[in-house]
User: Fold this.
Amino acid sequence: MFKSGDTVLYSSEGVCRIKEITIKNFGDTSIEYYVLEPVFNNRSTFFVPSKNEKLTSRMHTLLKYDELTEIIKNSADNTWIENDAQRKEIFKSILSEGEISAIISMFKTIMNHKIDIENSGKKLHKPDESAYKEAQKIIYEQFAMYVDISKDDVPAIILTQK
Assistant:
């Protein structure tokens, strides 16, 4: 499905380039891997078994700039989940799956909640703040592939695409 040199969004790790497709031998078993290097953080390398459907399902082709802005325009701001544990699990699942439209909707939801509570002098809970920053990173990296932006500009981009 993917080939060496492709750029993909890999789960919550962000935008990665497939450096190579390699085979590793373990005794009598040979396993083919995608070797992923993050584009914006080259301190890590990820080996994703090409036959592992669960892990390869977290690899997504990058959207074009117009597709990305269209998803932002059309994505919903979901209802805030009051139960902290349930909300944390849902956010974790969304980030793990790496589906950009779900990440954008989640980001919008957290961003709007953040704006609401900051007007009351409150702050986001730590897990919500972590999910917010992780989603912001993923969205930023998608945009940064096409335009020169700062990570701090992501909320403004989301707000102006309504």
In short: Strands lie at 7-10, 14-26, 29-38, 46-49, 59-61. The chain has a mean pLDDT of 90. Helices lie at 53-56, 65-74, 84-97, 100-118, 126-144, 154-160. The two ends are 34 Å apart (CA to CA).
